[in-house]
Amino acid sequence: MGQKGDIRVPNLRLLVNPDGTYDLILEYSSGDVEFAEEFSVKKSLQKNSKRLLNAIRSCAEKGKIRNVKILVSGALVATVAFSSFMSAFAASDRYTMGYLYTGTDHQQVEYVENTGEALDVVSPSYFDIREDGSLKLNHLSSYFIKTMHDKGLKVVPFLSNHWNRQAGIRALENRESLAQQIAQYVEEYNLDGINVDIENVTHNERESYTDFIRLLREKIPAEKEVSVAVAANPKNWQVGWHGSYDYAALGKYADHLMIMAYDEHYEGGEPGPVSSYEFVESSIQYALQHVSSDQVVLGIPLYGRVWSMDNESVVGKGVSSKVIQEILKDCPSTIVYDPETRSVKAEFTVPASGTDYVVGVNTVLQPGKYQVWFEDSQSYEAKLGLVEKYDLKGAGAWSLGQEDPSIWENYPDWVNGEEESTPSLPENPQTPPSGENFVHTVKKGDTLWKLAQQYLGDGSRYPEIMEMNALSGTTLYPGMQLKIPGKTQTPSTPEATYRSHTVKKGDTLWKIAKTYFGDGNRYPEIVKLNNLSGNTIHPGQVLKIPN
Question: Of 133, 282, 367, 510, which residue is least crowded by CB atoms under 10 Å?
Answer without folding.
Answer: 367
